[in-house]
Design goal:
With 340 residues, this protein is of the alpha/beta class. It is built from ten helices and 13 strands. The strands form three sheets. The chain has a six-stranded parallel sheet, with helices on both faces. Strands 1-3-4-5-2 form a five-stranded antiparallel sheet, with helices on one face. A two-stranded parallel ribbon has the order 11-13. Helix 2 packs across helix 3 and helix 5 packs parallel to helix 6. The protein is elongated and about 80 Å long.
Length: 340
Amino acid sequence: SNTITQPIDLDLSAVSVGDTFENLCGGKKELAASLFPYLTEALGEDVVYEIALLSSIVGMTVPGLHSLFLDLKITFKDGVDNQIVTVNSKHELLGLIKLGYVGINLDAKIEAFFRPKSVTIPSCEDLSNQLPSALNMTGKKVLVIGGSRGLGAWVAKLVGISGGEVTITFNTGKDDAELVVQDVQSYGAICDCVHINVSENLKVEVFKTTFDYLFYFATPKISMNKSSVFDEDLYEIFYNFYVRDFKKAVEFFVPLGVSCVIYPSTMFIDEAKKGFKEYIKAKIEGEKVCDELSKNLSVKVVKPRIPPVSTDQTLSLLPTVKENTIDTVLSILALMSFND
């Protein structure tokens, strides 16, 4: 049927072994021939259509919205009239679920993960109840590069709550940036967002004001490299964000009035975290640049090594122990000495 138009938002706890699902998602059967002409000629339109719809079981029904398709085994058979999906097993720790599909032209065994749900940032109203009275940024103008998501968005909200005027930048996360701005403004604080790509030339005219403080949270997706071979291409991606573009941004904004810069480094350096050698090397090089900038530009550059916290950058299938995000962000703000 075509009655399912939005993915079901299921939790692993809501699914039990033996549960069945019969109301499955449909689609346009006629696309089989145009998308897979040779397979359709060999197996027939109905079979190709049914194979394609197996992914919609995972993405639309179970696990649904927060899912990851892992494995599929198909057995062809003579046609029957019904379709049913049964939960055969589930793994509580991994969020792994095994499904049995009995269909019209085929049966299938499907494996999928329940992915962790996106990490949401509390509203300014909620955060204000956790803000220490000593943090006062009234009159301070703050730029958060990469402030639409993750730690940057946390910083932007806390700056606004504490009285500062904050501007956040985004490259691809326009919707996320607008939500942060809307929340800060709804709280009664001053917040603006600007679209920039730190890899390109920065222009003064795109900003409505100058800034006292610069927070640099621009980052690519932090990827692991499980191979023992150093990945030069991956390192170059990290280097461009954490070294080249960071240096360029500081050199651009310091002459315009920025007196203090935050460069979030990582505790992965201290732990020599396996699988992150390219990321770690780039962050170490970034710390060296911080020292050079402090010396050459006479600007205060703070480079705390931050522990893993719960953001959309750190979601993983396995549960991991992470620091309390607001405590981490408040410790970063405390390093800035806003009353100097």
